[in-house]
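Quick one:
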Amino acid sequence: MTPLALTLLPAVFFIAMVLTMVGLGGGLIFSPLFVLLGLPQAGAASAALLLNLVAAGAAAWTYARRGMVDYALGLPLIAASSLTAPLGAGLNLRLPPGVFLAVLATILILAGAVMLLPPRAEEEPRAPRRARMLGGAAIGACTGLLGGLLGIGGGVFIVPLLVHVLGVPVRTAAASSTFIVCFSSLTGFAGYASLSAVDWAFVLPAAGACALGGLAGARLMAHRLHGRAVRLVFSLTLLAMSLGLLARLL
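Output:
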C-alpha cells in the first residue's frame, strides 16, 4: 500500500461512520474523492462500490438485529437495482470526467435539499401495499442505474424517495437503505470488475476500515439519533460535498 493510501484509512473510517448513519455506505464521498486524488474514473467507482458494500453491510447487520429494516419494502428495490446497476457501470466508461463530477454534484444538491423538507406526519396513511411495491421497484431501477453509473451504490437517492414519495419514516428508510444498497453495490462492482482491474492492495485494507466505520455509524444512529437529526446530518453532508465538487469544477 502506498503512503497516500495508508493515510486515507482514517478518512475511510470516518466517512463510512457518518454516511451509514444516514443510510449510505460511503460511496457517495469515496467515488469523487478517489477521482480527485487521481484514480482512473472506472477504478475510483469500482473501489467506491466495494467499500460501499462493506460499510453498508456492516451497518445493515446492526440495523437488522434491532428490527429496523423493512424487508417487504426492500425486496422490490433490491431486485430492480441489482439488475440496473451493472448497466450504469457500463455507461460510466463513456462518461467524461467533467460531466461525471457535474452530474454527481447536481444529484447531491437535489438530494440534500429534499431531505431538508419536513417528512410526512407519522399519522398520515402510507401508500397502499401494491403501490409501495411498484413504487419501490421503479425507485430501485432508477437508483441502481444512477448508483452504478456514479459509483455511489444508490442510497443517496433511495432515502429521500422512500421518505417523500412512499411516506416511509426516516429512520426506517435510512436503515432499510443500507440493506438495499448492499445488493446494488455488489452487482455494480461486479460489472466494473469484469471491465477493469481492481486495486486490491488498497481496497482490502480500506474495506476493513469501512466495516469498522459502518458498525460505529449504525450504533450511533440506532441508539442516539432521531429522525430530524438523521435528516440534518444527511443534508449537511451532501451539500458540503456538492460544494467541494463544484469548486473543483470551477
